[in-house]
Write a structure and sequence with these properties.
Chain lengths: 256, 239
């Protein structure tokens, strides 16, 4: 068992090293999220006087959307590492060692989790310093990081699972495209009371990303009901579990 | 069916060549023996272990050096050797000592801080092989390991491998299309064709086999003669 854990951490630190060695993807994701935050706040932030915003500033309202998008960018690391290893053949070399094949897939996913925690903490920390409120203090801060971690890890695990099965980067990138689309089929820009399109309301009600965003809003400025934290926790736990099972089961179909 | 009822036994410490034309099933056999592919039916045992079920235990006994050089292009020679050592539980001093041994055997001194992507194709293959030997495997599978190497590097490569074979008793199981290589470096060989074994024995026996017609002066003549007679038999069988 110790050898399994040792092997997992060996691959985990290798993946972290890869992420740190090539940080452009993550830096790009952070900068893009910052860009969205400031552009949308500048463009439509003036409507935050409306009662549906419950007195929170637009930055606090839109911050969860940016965090969720940033996690998507950070979650691409595992897919990238796996793709590079599959392409170079190094994946086969590691597979031909006594390391468990589950570790081969899940260690890069865990490294993505590490990156998500770091980038989300920095991003949310800057927002708090800029005046975004934390309704429940440090618990709110921990809560939004944890929710973002669950969301990002789920995406990372799905991407890694697909890549391990197909060996094609394009198929894993499809996950990011779908997730990016899902981010906007939510109450991303306006509270649901202000959304007029019925179809968007229906989709956002069943879209799991909505729960993550609303839960973070509940923890930040309290513009959503606190029950969304429960919804997001349960939905997130289910999503993450399914994603990890999918990724772990890929060990039997490794593209080597 | 790529393989059909193959039984091969290789003695410990032996240098064994697996020969056959393209598509004969050599690489498929090596992939199955090393857990990279699963056999559709039948049973496979390497050191008494089923590669599909017990691959983690098996990896402690075998090394695999495939056709491609499976390296991390961004890492240096020394960092790859040390990482490979840790993958096999050789941490700290043990890993470092083994890495230094292989650097000496494969003559990488002076290049250890070079990144893999800076190495020539031949040297990449030599590093690939060195990595496969990090845990002192009892048996190493080499699938056309010298393809693309120039004669000088090829010579150095075989000298390194024979040094390991002699000093550590590592069994060499290799397939190659260079028959001079098999003649020079293997003690025994098997020839497979259409997934079946045509010949299994000492190199000298293959050259003096009664299967041949005409003068046989080297392994290449013997191999070509064997292939010709087998194909003729197949044609007459179909007719």
């Amino acid at each position: 068992m110790l050898r399994e854990i040792d092997g997992f951490f060996l691959l985990f630190w290798r993946s972290v090293k890869k992420i740190v060695g090539k940080p452009f993807g993550i830096i790009g994701a952070v900068l893009m999220s910052l860009f969205f935050l400031f552009v949308y706040s500048a463009g439509i932030g003036a409507i935050d006087f409306l009662p549906q915003f419950k007195g929170s500033g637009y930055i606090a309202f839109f911050l969860p959307v940016c965090l969720v998008q940033m996690a998507m960018g950070s979650a691409a690391g595992a897919g990238g590492t796996l793709f590079e290893d599959v392409t170079s053949g190094y994946f086969r070399r590691i597979a031909l060692s006594p390391i468990t094949r589950v570790s081969l897939i899940l260690a890069p996913v865990a490294a993505d989790g590490f990156a998500i925690v770091i980038t989300s903490s920095i991003f949310a920390g800057i927002a708090v310093l800029a005046g975004v409120p934390l309704r429940y203090g440090w618990m709110s801060f921990t809560g939004i990081i944890a929710l973002n971690l669950i969301w990002g890890l789920s995406l990372s695990a799905i991407s890694a699972g697909i890549l391990a099965r197909t060996g094609k980067n394009g198929t894993a990138a499809l996950v990011t495209t779908i997730a990016f689309t899902l981010c906007f089929l939510t109450t991303a820009f306006l509270p649901k009371e202000l959304i007029t399109a019925k179809w968007l309301l229906v989709i956002s009600a069943v879209n799991p990303v909505t729960y993550f965003i609303e839960a973070m809003r509940a923890l930040l400025a309290g513009t959503s009901e606190i029950v969304y934290v429960q919804y997001a926790s349960f939905t997130g736990a289910g999503l993450l579990l399914a994603a990890l099972i999918f990724a772990a089961s890929s060990r039997r179909r490794l593209f080597i | 069916m790529a393989l059909n009822g193959i039984t091969l036994s290789v003695q410990a410490g032996e240098r064994f060549a697996l020969l056959g034309p393209n598509g004969a099933g050599k690489s498929t056999l090596i992939r199955i023996l090393t857990s990279l592919s699963r056999a559709d039916c039948g049973s496979v045992r390497v050191y008494g272990l089923d590669p599909a079920r017990n691959f983690r235990s098996l990896m402690n006994y075998i090394g695999v050096c495939g056709q491609s050089d499976d390296l991390d292009p961004e890492e240096t020679i020394i960092s790859q050797l040390l990482f490979q050592a840790r993958l096999f539980g050789l941490n700290g001093k043990k890993g470092k000592e083994r890495a230094e041994e292989l650097i000496e055997i494969f003559d990488f001194a002076g290049e250890v801080k070079k990144r893999t992507k800076e190495l020539s194709g031949g040297n990449r293959k030599r590093l690939h092989c060195a990595l496969s030997l990090i845990h002192r495997p009892r048996l190493i599978f080499l699938d056309e390991p010298t393809t693309g190497m120039d004669p000088e590097i090829r010579h150095a490569f075989w000298e390194s491998l024979k040094q390991v074979n002699k000093a550590e008793g590592t069994t060499l199981f290799f397939c190659t299309q260079y028959l001079d290589e098999a003649e020079r470096h293997a003690q025994r060989a098997a020839v497979i064709f259409n997934g079946s074994v045509l010949f299994d024995g000492k190199i000298g026996e293959l050259m003096t086999s009664s299967l041949h017609s005409g003068e046989i002066t080297n392994l290449e003549d013997a191999y070509l003669s064997l292939m010709r007679s087998t194909k003729q038999k197949e044609v007459s069988h179909v007719a």
